[in-house]
Design brief:
Growth Hormone, Chain: A, globular, Nitrate/nitrite transporter
């Protein structure tokens, strides 16, 4: 029997209900977005040589790849609250396919930098995925649903690092030069974005009860979104700091991992891509694990318990990063990478197990601010990796110490000050 209410269970083998169909399409779309967003990252050793980029210039492109997403996530969060996730995601995918296709026309540092900046907007896709799963599932399962969708989507970062060097090698095998091959390889993610735009528009809807354009939005009639209410809430900024450390490090590592393994351990581009892909591949379970634990703890200890879990996860992430920075051999580097990656990705899931409950009337805006925090973190980390005075190992070490400090801040934040989790989901008010 089909229901127009948020689901109480996450049945991943259900493809018929609109809630689960939307769940599957949204995580798959977010997965494909990584091919556009980070498709260039594992090819950077070749691109660096082809365009003659310095370390500082490479660092600037890393910053550009994540900085545009900051503003985009704020705008997209607001559009989800007003225009609806279905139309917002479709428009975003079509818009961002353009620079993904055109980046191959770059033959200078300046044009490559501008295209990476434009491509970075696709990172706002995460906000829509988290907003959409928050709407489709009941409070007791939101953290799990958000974490699984986000984790499987983030898995695209790992698969991108693994597959793009293979696509590149296949094109070289057809007789093209390396300079031509990396450009032609980007046709693949551009096409994937357009395909996902069609799937999203065709097979999802805004809420379990229907699309925004087809139903009366009683929530909007009762009380309009209050921007100031969100901005002045410290809990929102605490979660933004949390996400800056965990997701900010994730997207930074997706960008620099291949270069780090090539320059510090002497592996080739293909092997570096596989090692970087191992980091991203852990999203298949690690982020979901964070959300599942948070939901279980939340049933007994509320938002306060979820906050304490988040603080612990981020602290261990920081310790693991310090170990990774000190690794002198490749096996030690891989082992410590797996350690910090596990807790980093669990922290991602735990962050968005808290986010939907901070302000039920402004879920999109809160998700946008917290998501933007992740990219602000990634941008600031990019300046460390850009510095001529710091090695990549130095940058990892400083980020690890910052994570421990952030964990202390999160631990003392009272997340359950204003609102308690209600059994009635916000979308039920739309029916």
């Amino acid at each position: 029997m089909k229901s127009n209410k948020p689901l109480e269970k996450l049945n991943i083998f259900d493809f018929s209900s609109v809630q689960m169909r939307t769940f599957h399409v949204t995580w798959l779309t977010f997965f494909m977005c990584f091919f556009g967003w980070f498709g260039l990252a594992p090819l950077m050793p070749t691109i660096r040589e082809d365009l003659g980029l310095s370390k500082a210039q490479v660092g600037n492109t890393l910053i550009a790849a994540v900085s545009a997403t900051i503003i985009a996530r704020l705008i997209i969060g607001r559009l989800c609250d007003t225009w609806g996730p279905r139309k917002t995601y479709t428009a975003l995918l079509v818009l961002c396919a353009v620079p993904v296709y055109l980046v191959g026309l770059s033959h200078s540092y300046e044009t490559f930098l501008l295209f990476r900046l434009a491509i970075g907007v696709i990172g706002a896709s995460f906000v829509i995925t988290q907003y959409h799963t928050s709407i489709m599932f009941a409070p007791g399962i939101k953290g799990t649903a958000n974490a699984v969708a986000g984790g499987w989507g983030n898995l695209g970062g790992g698969i991108t690092n693994m597959l793009m060097p293979l696509i590149f090698a296949g094109i070289v095998g057809l007789g093209y030069t390396k300079g031509e091959a990396w450009r032609l390889a980007m046709i693949v993610p551009g096409t994937l974005l357009l395909l996902c735009a069609f799937l999203y528009y065709k097979f999802t809807q805004d809420t379990p009860a229907g699309n925004y354009a087809d139903i009366r939005r009683k929530v909007a009639q009762k009380e309009k979104p209050n921007t100031w209410e969100v901005v002045k809430d410290w809990r929102v900024w605490a979660l933004a700091i949390s996400y800056s450390i965990c997701f900010g490090m994730e997207i930074t590592f997706d960008n620099v991992a291949a270069l780090h393994f090539v320059d510090n351990f002497g592996v080739d581009q293909k092997m570096a891509g596989l090692l970087a892909g191992m980091f991203g591949f852990m999203n298949i379970f690690a982020r979901a694990l964070g959300g599942i634990w948070a939901d279980k703890i939340g049933k007994k200890n509320g938002l306060t318990g979820k906050g304490r879990l988040l603080a612990i996860l981020i602290a261990i992430e920081g310790i693991g990063l310090v170990f990774f920075a000190s690794a002198a051999t490749l096996p030690v580097a891989i082992a410590s990478m797996v350690l910090f990656a596990l807790f980093l990705k669990m922290a991602n899931g735990a962050t968005y197990a808290l986010t939907p409950f901070i302000n039920a009337k402004n879920v999109g805006m809160v998700a946008g601010i917290v998501g933007a925090g992740g990219n602000i973190g990634g941008m600031l980390m990019g300046f460390l990796f850009k510095s001529e005075n710091l090695t990549y190992a130095d940058a990892f070490r400083y980020i690890g110490m910052a994570a421990v400090a952030a964990a202390i801040l999160i631990a003392i934040t009272r997340f359950s000050v204003k609102e308690k989790v209600k059994k009635t989901a916000m979308v039920e008010d739309l029916v």
